[in-house]
Amino acid sequence: MSEDLKIVVVISDISIKNHVAMSIAYIHVHNMLIIKTLHHTIDITSTEAKLFAIKCGINQATQIANINYIIVITNSIYTTKRIFNLLVHSYQIQLSTILRKLRKFSGKDQHNFIEF
After folding, report:
1. What is the total count of domains within the chain?
2. What is the domain extent for residue 61?
3. pTM
4. How confident is the model over 5-35, as pLDDT tens digits?
5. Disulfide: which of 82, 101, 109, 114 matches 70 by Cβ 3.0-4.6 Å?
6. Cross-strand partners of 10
7. For the domain that residue 46 is a member of, what is the CATH number?
8. Strand ranges inside the chain, DSSP E
């Protein structure tokens, strides 16, 4: 992790067992875990659970003051690409929420950006 306090790292993951999905998002700043979000749900697809974990992590990260750079680490890069595909209509609710948060984050400072 970087020693720069303006960087936040979001680590998201999901697991599904017996139709129960568990999504986890860890938020790190300056090599310290500051937020851990854990959600359970039933009867959800793995793609929906992955999107939810990414969305929660981004939501938490954009709320942290004085952050310029968000790094999202996920084992779901295929899913991440799908959320930004405007032709996949089934994920537009998640997409609109994520884009709204990212637009607000990037509008705070011209140097703000996010990387997956």
Report:
1. 1
2. 7-115
3. 0.73
4. 588 998 888 888 888 888 888 898 887 888 8
5. 114
6. 27, 72
7. 3.30.420.10
8. 7-17, 20-29, 32-42, 69-74, 113-115
